[in-house]
Amino acid sequence: ILKKPVLGKAECFAAFDCDADGGLSFSEFKLICRALFKNDITGEIYEISEEKLKEIFQVFDIKKDGVIDLDEFE
């Protein structure tokens, strides 16, 4: 039986680090959230406010430098 390869943390991070600068900006983080909050059956995106996304981003941005680096991505 063939299984789909599982992406590691670094590969997932790189997939959303659109500008390949080693950090996820808020706009790149929003792309992750859209991918995670998408209904697989209908393709509809679950609504989440910009304010709530910023709050979540700040939780992951431990260094408070405006980006989420690979270490913070864990």
Automatic annotation (TrEMBL):
- What GO MF annotations does this protein's record show? calcium ion binding
Q: Which InterPro entries match?
A: EF-hand-dom_pair (IPR011992), EF_hand_dom (IPR002048)
Per the record, the domain of life is Eukaryota
Q: Which Gene3D superfamilies match?
A: EF-hand
What the entry lists under SUPFAM superfamilies is as follows: EF-hand (SSF47473)
Q: Which residues form the EF-hand domain?
A: 11-39, 48-74
Task: Name the chain's protein.
Answer: EF-hand domain-containing protein
